[in-house]
Amino acid sequence: MSKLVIVGTVAFDAIETPFGKTDKILGGAATYIGLAASQFNVEGAIVSIVGGDFPKEYIDMLAAKGMDVTGLEVVKDGKTFFWSGKYHNDMNSRDTLATELNVLADFNPKVPNAYTRAEVVMLGNLHPLVQLGVIDQMVNPKLVVLDTMNFWMDNTLKELMQVIARVDVITINDEEARQLSGEYSLVNAAKKIMEMGPKFVVIKKGEHGALLFHKDEMFYAPALPLAEVFDPTGAGDTFAGGFSGYLAKTEDYSYENMKNAIIYGAALASFCVEKFGTERMLQLTNKQVHKRLQQFKSLTQFDIELT
Ligand code: AMP
Protein backbone atom coordinates (compact mmCIF):
# COMPACT_ATOMS: atom_id res chain seq x y z
CA MET A 1 0.00 0.00 0.00
CA SER A 2 1.41 3.37 -0.90
CA LYS A 3 1.41 6.47 1.26
CA LEU A 4 -0.90 9.42 0.67
CA VAL A 5 -0.18 13.09 1.27
CA ILE A 6 -3.27 15.24 1.74
CA VAL A 7 -3.14 19.01 1.61
CA GLY A 8 -6.20 21.20 2.07
CA THR A 9 -8.04 23.37 4.52
CA VAL A 10 -8.82 22.24 8.04
CA ALA A 11 -11.58 24.64 8.92
CA PHE A 12 -14.54 25.93 10.80
CA ASP A 13 -17.71 25.96 8.70
CA ALA A 14 -21.07 27.60 9.29
CA ILE A 15 -23.68 26.00 7.07
CA GLU A 16 -27.27 26.77 6.23
CA THR A 17 -29.47 24.34 4.31
CA PRO A 18 -33.27 24.17 3.96
CA PHE A 19 -33.12 21.69 6.88
CA GLY A 20 -31.24 23.75 9.39
CA LYS A 21 -28.30 25.89 10.32
CA THR A 22 -25.04 25.21 12.13
CA ASP A 23 -22.61 27.47 13.89
CA LYS A 24 -18.85 26.94 13.46
CA ILE A 25 -18.50 23.18 13.10
CA LEU A 26 -15.52 21.10 11.97
CA GLY A 27 -14.97 21.29 8.21
CA GLY A 28 -12.33 21.86 5.58
CA ALA A 29 -11.28 20.07 2.44
CA ALA A 30 -8.42 18.13 4.07
CA THR A 31 -10.67 17.04 6.92
CA TYR A 32 -13.22 15.49 4.56
CA ILE A 33 -10.52 13.99 2.33
CA GLY A 34 -8.77 12.46 5.35
CA LEU A 35 -11.98 11.00 6.76
CA ALA A 36 -12.82 9.41 3.40
CA ALA A 37 -9.29 8.08 2.81
CA SER A 38 -9.23 6.59 6.32
CA GLN A 39 -11.78 4.04 5.07
CA PHE A 40 -8.92 2.36 3.19
CA ASN A 41 -6.50 2.23 6.14
CA VAL A 42 -3.88 3.93 3.97
CA GLU A 43 -0.97 5.67 5.63
CA GLY A 44 -2.03 9.28 5.14
CA ALA A 45 -0.64 12.61 6.30
CA ILE A 46 -2.60 15.87 6.50
CA VAL A 47 -0.61 18.97 5.63
CA SER A 48 -2.50 22.06 6.72
CA ILE A 49 -2.71 24.86 9.26
CA VAL A 50 -5.12 25.89 12.03
CA GLY A 51 -5.22 28.60 14.70
CA GLY A 52 -5.07 28.38 18.48
CA ASP A 53 -8.90 28.47 18.46
CA PHE A 54 -9.03 24.99 16.90
CA PRO A 55 -10.02 22.31 19.44
CA LYS A 56 -7.32 19.73 20.15
CA GLU A 57 -9.99 17.03 20.21
CA TYR A 58 -10.53 17.50 16.45
CA ILE A 59 -6.82 16.96 15.81
CA ASP A 60 -6.88 13.91 18.07
CA MET A 61 -9.88 12.58 16.15
CA LEU A 62 -8.01 12.88 12.82
CA ALA A 63 -5.02 11.10 14.37
CA ALA A 64 -7.31 8.38 15.74
CA LYS A 65 -8.58 7.87 12.19
CA GLY A 66 -5.01 6.99 11.23
CA MET A 67 -3.93 10.36 9.83
CA ASP A 68 -0.39 11.59 10.50
CA VAL A 69 -0.91 15.13 11.84
CA THR A 70 2.72 16.19 12.24
CA GLY A 71 2.27 18.38 9.11
CA LEU A 72 -0.79 20.09 10.63
CA GLU A 73 0.63 23.33 11.94
CA VAL A 74 -1.02 25.09 14.88
CA VAL A 75 -0.50 28.86 15.11
CA LYS A 76 -1.30 29.63 18.75
CA ASP A 77 -2.21 33.30 18.30
CA GLY A 78 -3.88 32.87 14.90
CA LYS A 79 -7.44 32.12 13.77
CA THR A 80 -8.54 29.04 11.84
CA PHE A 81 -9.77 29.32 8.23
CA PHE A 82 -13.52 30.01 8.26
CA TRP A 83 -16.06 29.33 5.54
CA SER A 84 -19.77 29.88 5.55
CA GLY A 85 -22.26 28.83 2.91
CA LYS A 86 -25.98 28.73 2.26
CA TYR A 87 -27.62 26.12 0.02
CA HIS A 88 -30.50 26.82 -2.32
CA ASN A 89 -33.63 24.68 -2.18
CA ASP A 90 -32.36 22.21 -4.81
CA MET A 91 -29.24 21.60 -2.64
CA ASN A 92 -27.17 21.41 -5.81
CA SER A 93 -26.05 25.01 -5.68
CA ARG A 94 -24.94 27.27 -2.86
CA ASP A 95 -23.82 30.79 -2.11
CA THR A 96 -20.61 31.37 -0.24
CA LEU A 97 -21.36 33.89 2.50
CA ALA A 98 -17.84 34.20 3.92
CA THR A 99 -14.33 32.95 3.25
CA GLU A 100 -11.86 34.11 5.90
CA LEU A 101 -8.37 32.84 5.13
CA ASN A 102 -6.92 33.82 8.55
CA VAL A 103 -3.83 31.62 9.26
CA LEU A 104 -4.01 30.27 5.72
CA ALA A 105 -2.96 33.66 4.36
CA ASP A 106 0.72 33.05 5.22
CA PHE A 107 0.97 29.30 5.23
CA ASN A 108 4.22 27.57 4.28
CA PRO A 109 3.35 23.88 4.04
CA LYS A 110 5.83 21.35 5.41
CA VAL A 111 5.43 17.74 4.25
CA PRO A 112 6.64 15.40 7.05
CA ASN A 113 9.95 13.73 6.13
CA ALA A 114 8.38 10.29 6.24
CA TYR A 115 5.96 11.36 3.50
CA THR A 116 8.10 13.19 0.92
CA ARG A 117 8.36 9.93 -1.06
CA ALA A 118 4.64 9.13 -0.89
CA GLU A 119 3.31 7.78 -4.18
CA VAL A 120 0.01 9.67 -4.14
CA VAL A 121 -0.52 13.37 -3.49
CA MET A 122 -4.04 14.71 -3.02
CA LEU A 123 -4.01 18.47 -3.43
CA GLY A 124 -7.29 19.46 -1.82
CA ASN A 125 -8.90 22.82 -2.17
CA LEU A 126 -6.51 25.53 -0.97
CA HIS A 127 -4.36 28.38 -2.25
CA PRO A 128 -2.58 27.21 -5.45
CA LEU A 129 0.77 28.49 -4.17
CA VAL A 130 0.45 26.20 -1.16
CA GLN A 131 -0.42 23.32 -3.50
CA LEU A 132 2.69 24.15 -5.57
CA GLY A 133 4.77 24.27 -2.38
CA VAL A 134 3.70 20.72 -1.60
CA ILE A 135 4.42 19.39 -5.11
CA ASP A 136 7.93 20.90 -4.85
CA GLN A 137 8.67 18.94 -1.66
CA MET A 138 7.65 15.58 -3.15
CA VAL A 139 10.19 13.14 -4.60
CA ASN A 140 8.87 11.32 -7.69
CA PRO A 141 5.21 10.95 -6.78
CA LYS A 142 3.38 8.47 -9.01
CA LEU A 143 0.08 10.32 -8.98
CA VAL A 144 -0.77 13.94 -8.21
CA VAL A 145 -4.48 14.72 -7.97
CA LEU A 146 -5.77 18.29 -7.81
CA ASP A 147 -9.09 19.50 -6.50
CA THR A 148 -9.90 23.19 -6.69
CA MET A 149 -12.85 25.55 -6.94
CA ASN A 150 -14.11 28.79 -8.49
CA PHE A 151 -12.80 30.88 -5.55
CA TRP A 152 -9.22 30.19 -6.68
CA MET A 153 -10.11 30.60 -10.37
CA ASP A 154 -11.55 34.03 -9.58
CA ASN A 155 -8.71 35.19 -7.33
CA THR A 156 -5.51 33.35 -8.28
CA LEU A 157 -5.95 32.02 -11.82
CA LYS A 158 -2.31 32.50 -12.89
CA GLU A 159 -0.98 30.47 -9.95
CA LEU A 160 -3.72 27.88 -10.39
CA MET A 161 -2.71 27.36 -14.04
CA GLN A 162 0.83 26.56 -12.84
CA VAL A 163 -0.53 23.85 -10.55
CA ILE A 164 -2.81 22.45 -13.26
CA ALA A 165 0.20 22.07 -15.57
CA ARG A 166 1.89 19.81 -13.00
CA VAL A 167 -0.83 17.35 -12.00
CA ASP A 168 -1.99 14.02 -13.40
CA VAL A 169 -5.65 14.29 -12.44
CA ILE A 170 -7.93 17.27 -11.83
CA THR A 171 -11.32 16.98 -10.14
CA ILE A 172 -13.70 19.93 -10.45
CA ASN A 173 -17.43 20.44 -10.69
CA ASP A 174 -19.29 21.09 -13.93
CA GLU A 175 -19.64 24.85 -13.51
CA GLU A 176 -15.95 25.19 -12.65
CA ALA A 177 -14.99 23.07 -15.68
CA ARG A 178 -17.00 25.46 -17.85
CA GLN A 179 -15.43 28.51 -16.20
CA LEU A 180 -11.89 27.14 -16.55
CA SER A 181 -12.23 26.04 -20.17
CA GLY A 182 -14.70 28.57 -21.57
CA GLU A 183 -16.60 25.62 -23.09
CA TYR A 184 -20.20 24.77 -22.31
CA SER A 185 -20.05 21.11 -23.41
CA LEU A 186 -18.36 19.07 -20.69
CA VAL A 187 -16.78 16.84 -23.34
CA ASN A 188 -15.13 19.87 -24.92
CA ALA A 189 -14.31 21.35 -21.52
CA ALA A 190 -12.51 18.14 -20.49
CA LYS A 191 -10.52 18.16 -23.76
CA LYS A 192 -9.40 21.75 -23.21
CA ILE A 193 -8.46 21.04 -19.60
CA MET A 194 -6.40 18.00 -20.64
CA GLU A 195 -4.47 20.35 -22.94
CA MET A 196 -3.56 22.38 -19.84
CA GLY A 197 -1.70 19.41 -18.31
CA PRO A 198 -3.72 16.69 -16.57
CA LYS A 199 -4.02 13.32 -18.35
CA PHE A 200 -7.26 12.62 -16.51
CA VAL A 201 -10.16 14.96 -15.83
CA VAL A 202 -12.93 14.18 -13.37
CA ILE A 203 -16.00 16.39 -13.59
CA LYS A 204 -18.32 16.22 -10.56
CA LYS A 205 -21.99 16.89 -11.20
CA GLY A 206 -23.39 16.82 -7.67
CA GLU A 207 -26.51 14.69 -7.45
CA HIS A 208 -25.98 13.73 -11.11
CA GLY A 209 -22.77 11.79 -10.54
CA ALA A 210 -19.31 12.24 -12.01
CA LEU A 211 -17.53 11.83 -15.34
CA LEU A 212 -13.99 10.58 -15.88
CA PHE A 213 -12.19 11.63 -19.07
CA HIS A 214 -8.92 10.27 -20.46
CA LYS A 215 -7.73 10.82 -24.04
CA ASP A 216 -10.83 10.09 -26.15
CA GLU A 217 -12.48 7.87 -23.56
CA MET A 218 -15.04 8.66 -20.91
CA PHE A 219 -16.69 6.86 -18.01
CA TYR A 220 -19.68 7.79 -15.89
CA ALA A 221 -20.26 7.12 -12.19
CA PRO A 222 -23.80 7.84 -11.03
CA ALA A 223 -24.65 9.43 -7.71
CA LEU A 224 -26.92 7.25 -5.64
CA PRO A 225 -30.39 8.82 -5.52
CA LEU A 226 -31.00 9.37 -1.81
CA ALA A 227 -34.24 9.87 0.03
CA GLU A 228 -32.68 12.38 2.39
CA VAL A 229 -29.92 14.89 1.71
CA PHE A 230 -29.23 17.13 4.68
CA ASP A 231 -26.01 18.90 3.82
CA PRO A 232 -23.89 18.53 0.66
CA THR A 233 -20.88 20.29 2.26
CA GLY A 234 -17.74 18.26 1.80
CA ALA A 235 -19.23 15.89 -0.76
CA GLY A 236 -16.67 16.94 -3.37
CA ASP A 237 -13.79 16.53 -0.94
CA THR A 238 -15.12 13.21 0.28
CA PHE A 239 -15.29 12.12 -3.34
CA ALA A 240 -11.65 13.19 -3.80
CA GLY A 241 -10.64 11.35 -0.62
CA GLY A 242 -12.36 8.17 -1.76
CA PHE A 243 -10.79 8.48 -5.21
CA SER A 244 -7.23 9.12 -4.02
CA GLY A 245 -7.48 6.75 -1.04
CA TYR A 246 -8.60 3.89 -3.23
CA LEU A 247 -5.78 4.51 -5.72
CA ALA A 248 -3.19 4.72 -2.92
CA LYS A 249 -4.47 1.47 -1.51
CA THR A 250 -4.49 -0.44 -4.82
CA GLU A 251 -1.31 1.19 -6.25
CA ASP A 252 -2.78 0.93 -9.72
CA TYR A 253 -2.98 4.31 -11.45
CA SER A 254 -4.47 3.11 -14.74
CA TYR A 255 -7.60 4.50 -16.40
CA GLU A 256 -9.35 1.15 -15.78
CA ASN A 257 -8.68 1.32 -12.04
CA MET A 258 -9.68 4.99 -11.91
CA LYS A 259 -13.16 3.85 -12.93
CA ASN A 260 -13.36 1.91 -9.64
CA ALA A 261 -11.87 4.88 -7.82
CA ILE A 262 -14.63 7.26 -8.96
CA ILE A 263 -17.28 4.73 -7.96
CA TYR A 264 -15.68 4.55 -4.50
CA GLY A 265 -15.57 8.34 -4.38
CA ALA A 266 -19.24 8.59 -5.33
CA ALA A 267 -20.22 5.93 -2.77
CA LEU A 268 -18.41 7.70 0.08
CA ALA A 269 -19.81 11.10 -0.97
CA SER A 270 -23.32 9.63 -0.80
CA PHE A 271 -22.81 9.07 2.95
CA CYS A 272 -21.31 12.48 3.59
CA VAL A 273 -24.49 14.33 2.57
CA GLU A 274 -26.77 12.33 4.88
CA LYS A 275 -25.94 14.42 7.94
CA PHE A 276 -24.58 17.86 8.74
CA GLY A 277 -20.84 18.43 8.41
CA THR A 278 -18.54 15.50 9.15
CA GLU A 279 -21.05 13.68 11.38
CA ARG A 280 -21.93 10.85 9.02
CA MET A 281 -18.34 10.20 7.95
CA LEU A 282 -17.29 9.87 11.57
CA GLN A 283 -19.66 6.96 12.15
CA LEU A 284 -19.17 5.18 8.84
CA THR A 285 -18.30 1.48 8.87
CA ASN A 286 -16.68 -0.69 6.24
CA LYS A 287 -19.74 -2.90 6.11
CA GLN A 288 -21.99 0.06 5.26
CA VAL A 289 -19.62 1.10 2.48
CA HIS A 290 -19.67 -2.38 0.95
CA LYS A 291 -23.45 -2.50 1.06
CA ARG A 292 -23.63 0.83 -0.73
CA LEU A 293 -21.16 -0.25 -3.40
CA GLN A 294 -23.51 -3.16 -4.07
CA GLN A 295 -26.37 -0.65 -4.49
CA PHE A 296 -24.24 1.27 -6.97
CA LYS A 297 -23.71 -1.92 -8.93
CA SER A 298 -27.38 -2.80 -9.13
CA LEU A 299 -28.25 0.81 -10.00
CA THR A 300 -26.42 0.59 -13.31
CA GLN A 301 -26.20 -3.09 -14.19
CA PHE A 302 -28.47 -4.29 -16.97
CA ASP A 303 -28.50 -7.19 -19.31
CA ILE A 304 -29.53 -5.98 -22.73
CA GLU A 305 -29.72 -8.26 -25.75
CA LEU A 306 -28.20 -6.49 -28.74
CA THR A 307 -30.18 -7.45 -31.81
P1 AMP B 1 -17.14 20.94 -0.90
O1 AMP B 1 -18.55 20.97 -0.41
O2 AMP B 1 -16.65 19.58 -1.23
O3 AMP B 1 -16.89 21.94 -1.98
O4 AMP B 1 -16.21 21.39 0.32
C1 AMP B 1 -16.61 22.26 1.31
C2 AMP B 1 -15.44 22.44 2.26
O5 AMP B 1 -14.42 23.19 1.61
C3 AMP B 1 -15.84 23.19 3.50
O6 AMP B 1 -15.62 22.36 4.63
C4 AMP B 1 -14.94 24.44 3.53
O7 AMP B 1 -14.30 24.64 4.76
C5 AMP B 1 -13.93 24.21 2.45
N1 AMP B 1 -13.76 25.40 1.61
C6 AMP B 1 -14.72 26.28 1.22
N2 AMP B 1 -14.19 27.26 0.46
C7 AMP B 1 -12.86 26.98 0.35
C8 AMP B 1 -11.76 27.62 -0.31
N3 AMP B 1 -11.90 28.75 -1.02
N4 AMP B 1 -10.56 27.04 -0.21
C9 AMP B 1 -10.40 25.91 0.49
N5 AMP B 1 -11.37 25.26 1.14
C10 AMP B 1 -12.60 25.79 1.08
Task: Considering the chains and any ligands shown, give keywords for the structure.
UDP-N-acetylmuramoyl-L-alanine:D-glutamate ligase; 5-stranded mixed β-sheet; 11 helices; about 25% strand; binds adenosine monophosphate
Bound ligands: adenosine monophosphate
The tally of domains stands at: 1
CA radius of gyration is 18 Å
- Average pLDDT taken over every residue: 96
Number of helices: 11
Cα(first) to Cα(last) distance is 44 Å
Q: CATH superfamily name?
A: Ribokinase
Q: Largest sheet, if any?
A: 10 strands, mixed
Percent in helix: 25-40%
Q: Bin the strand percentage.
A: 15-25%
Number of strands: 15
Low-confidence stretches: none
What would you call the structural class?
A: alpha/beta
- CATH architecture term: 3-Layer(aba) Sandwich
Global morphology: globular
The third-level CATH topology is UDP-N-acetylmuramoyl-L-alanine:D-glutamate ligase
Spell the H/E element sequence: EEEEHEHEEEEEHEHHEHHEEEHHHH
- According to CATH, what is the class? Alpha Beta
